[in-house]
Specification:
- The structure holds two protein chains of two kinds.
- In chain A, strand 9 and strand 10 form a beta hairpin.
- Chain A contains eight helices and 18 strands.
- By secondary structure, chain A is of the alpha/beta class.
- Chain B is of the alpha/beta class.
- In chain B, 29% of the residues lie in helices and 27% in strands.
- Chain B has a nine-stranded mixed β-sheet with strand order 9-8-7-10-6-1-4-5-11, sandwiched between helices. In chain B, strands 2-3 form a two-stranded antiparallel sheet.
- In chain B, strand 7 and strand 8 form a beta hairpin.
- Classes of the chains: A alpha/beta, B alpha/beta.
- At the A-B interface, helix 3, helix 4, strand 7, strand 9 and strand 10 of A face helix 3, helix 4, strand 7, strand 8 and strand 9 of B.
- Strand 18 of chain A pairs parallel with strand 13 of chain B.
- The complex binds flavin-adenine dinucleotide and adenosine monophosphate (AMP).
- Flavin-adenine dinucleotide binds next to helix 6, helix 7 and helix 8 of chain A.
Chain lengths: 328, 262
């Protein structure tokens, strides 16, 4: 357990994404016990603006790897730079955000380093001197405790929204080091990144998720959820049937074959609560269900269940939220 | 275009999964073992590649003797060759050990393209595909929702946060597939009959020149310490409101006073 704790940073154009703060928070806690340093590692271009917020959110050291080959993510360049840095500096633990890029490169880094890896991590702690991680398995019907063997480096790919973000401490700062990174030209070439413009806030990072199921009956009715979500500052998701019917795209899907989300509040609208759906959202802090069938299984996991017609309730709820916000 | 597909046999999670009382694993009795959901999509994509570009489709599975059934399913869908890596020493292997052993199998087979599922629905790891690529020394992409091929390279799409990434990847390469890539075919009756007669080639670690110390439980850098049932969620209040307005007030009260998000 000697050595630093590292957090690999998720950022967009040198702005920290929320999951980076969550990893810094947990990283700080894991570093403090043995008295090690918390090191934030960022890869990309023109990263200097990250240094200050990283220091303010708990990093002792900030490593910035700036290179043209790191401007957009490729598995090759990220794997090379991360593996080399870890090999040279021998941290004890490396936290990697469970994002599309994090999940893509982490296994390669693990192989190159001969490091233990676990993914979908929802908790991390030290027990009898050994690092342990908790992660869901079997459609979240089982929680597994994984034990890392040996002295490290250990890799953990951590889900968003499972740890609270590190608080900002004004005036706190980190030692900044610009590292020499010269990755070979990646074999893979990014031809294009097409963005889908719906994102108010991303599904996996949202505080509130409003999610629609087959009960919505058609694509046009997702507008009802969009309106409610706009008032709440929420993201919109779905169960699988709306995806299979082409009402919404696959990036809305929550569950076994979609995304895992853990918002503070998950509002399930016209969703029955099948195990494959619960697999992706039962880690939410609160679940509100609106369903006209009093026997729908979703009510067995809901913190608040409303037995009613969604088409009547959702517009009224949007109005009520708007009214209360105006009062506040 | 020769395609190798790595497939896993997993318990059907439609059925109840129970943790053994001592937390050492899940109750295996009465489980229904199936071909991993995403691997059906991987097999389907391989068959489509063969239909368009020629070549052969070989399916590879590491697992105990019962896992041969998953290979039969893939053969029934239309794969022509099957390799079953089965060795008691693989029990307790971690994902890296498993990927290393699979890489050793794949390396012996003609492969322009290697396909895996995005994840296995038993352990939800999403590790084996990318790790396999690293052991093979070839490029990879995960969660691929579209694949187009020319002789030397693949053009693939993958879902990323807030969009879709389009990549050009030189072959050979490993891709893990997203469920949106295709709609898998069902095995036909003649396909099932043919699959029954096909020979499945069986390999042990020794056949690969590997030992338990390299890929087995001894080599594992992560181990399962225990398994627990998930914490039970407390069912809360379920109400049948008198009017939509009342329903809206109840939910808004909850958001404001209990969840404190309003
Ligand atoms: C391998 C596999 C993987 C899967 N992965 C996923 C996954 O990732 N995510 C997922 O969601 N599913 C997944 N599924 C599908 C899953 O089994 C269910 O079929 C699905 O979740 C059901 O979606 P639903 O609740 O929207 O639809 P339904 O089960 O049809 O429920 C619709 C609900 O809407 C209610 N309703 C209808 N009209 C109204 C109204 N006017 N007002 C209020 N309520 C109304 C009904 O009472 C009903 O409860 C998977 C299945 C398999 C086999
Ligand atoms: N035992 C195995 N035998 C063959 N392929 C496997 C095995 N385990 C995993 N895979 C492949 O790796 C993918 C991802 O598995 P995992 O990393 O365990 O989530 C699966 O969809 C398979 O394609």
């Amino acid at each position: 357990m000697s050595g630093d704790v590292w957090v690999v940073i998720d950022h967009a154009r040198a702005e920290l994404r929320r999951i980076s703060l969550e990893l810094l928070g947990k990283g700080r806690e894991l570093a403090d016990a043995p008295g090690s340093r918390l090191v934030a590692v960022a890869l990309g271009r023109e990263l200097d603006p990250l240094a200050r917020p990283l220091g303010e959110h708990g990093a002792d050291v900030v490593l910035l790897a700036d290179h043209p080959h790191l401007e957009v993510y490729t598995a090759d360049a990220y794997t090379e730079v991360l593996s080399q840095l870890v090999r040279e500096r021998a941290p004890w633990l490396v936290l990697i955000p469970s994002t599309a890029w994090g999940r893509d490169c982490a296994p390669r880094v693990a192989v190159r380093l001969g490091a233990g890896i676990s993914t979908d991590v929802e908790d991390l702690w030290v027990e009898s001197g050994q690092l342990r991680a908790r992660r869901p398995m079997y459609t979240r019907k089982v929680m597994a405790t994984v034990q890392y063997v040996g002295a490290g480096p250990h890799l953990a790919v951590v889900l968003p929204k499972v740890f609270p973000p590190a608080p900002r401490q004004e005036g706190r700062s980190a030692a900044v080091e610009r590292v020499e990174a010269a990755p070979s030209a990646p074999r893979t070439q990014v031809l294009e990144t097409r963005s889908v413009k719906r994102e108010r806030v991303s599904l996996t990072e949202a505080e509130i998720v409003v999610s629609g199921g087959r009960g919505l009956r058609g694509p046009e009715n997702f507008a009802l959820l969009e309106e409610l979500a706009a008032e709440l500052g929420a993201a919109v998701g779905s169960s699988r049937p709306p995806v299979d019917s082409g009402w919404v795209s696959h990036d809305y899907e929550i569950g076994q074959t979609g995304k895992t989300v853990s918002p503070t509040v998950y509002i399930a609208v016209g969703i029955s609560g099948a195990p494959q759906h619960l697999a992706g959202m039962s880690g939410s802090k609160y679940i509100v269900a609106i369903n006209k069938d009093p026997n729908a299984p979703i009510f067995q996991v809901a913190s608040l269940g409303i037995v009613a017609d969604l088409f009547q309730v959702v517009p009224k709820l949007t109005e009520e939220v708007r009214r209360r916000k105006a009062q506040a | 275009m020769n395609v190798v597909v790595c497939i896993k046999q997993v318990p059907d999670t439609e059925q109840p999964i129970r943790v053994r009382p001592d937390g050492s694993g899940i109750e295996e009795q009465g489980l229904n073992w199936i071909l991993n959901y995403y691997d059906e999509h991987a097999v389907e994509e391989a068959l489509r590649v063969r239909e368009r570009h020629g070549g052969t489709v070989t399916v590879v599975c590491a697992g105990p003797p019962r896992a041969a059934e998953a290979l039969r399913t893939a053969l029934a869908m239309g794969a022509e060759e099957a390799v079953h890596l089965t060795d008691p020493a693989l029990e307790g292997a971690d994902h890296l050990g498993l990927a290393r052993a699979l890489a050793q199998v794949v390396a012996q087979l003609p492969h322009d393209l290697v396909l895996c599922g995005r994840l296995a629905t038993d352990d939800n790891a999403s590790v084996v595909g990318a790790a396999l690529a690293e052991y093979l020394g070839v490029p990879h992409a995960t969660a691929v929702s579209k694949l187009e091929l020319t002789q030397e390279r693949a053009t693939v799409e993958r879902e990323v946060e807030g969009g879709v990434e389009v990549l050009a990847v030189p072959l050979p390469a490993v891709f893990t597939v997203e469920r949106t890539i295709n709609e898998p075919r069902y095995p036909t009756l003649p396909g099932i009959m043919r699959a029954k007669r096909k020979e499945i080639r069986t390999l042990s670690l020794q056949d690969l020149g590997l030992g338990p110390a390299e890929v087995g439980g001894q080599a594992a850098r992560v181990r399962y310490a225990r398994f627990d049932p998930p914490p039970r969620r407390q069912a809360g209040e379920v109400i049948t409101p008198d009017s939509p307005e009342e329903a809206a007030r109840k939910v808004a009260d909850f958001l404001q006073h209990t969840a404190k998000v309003l």
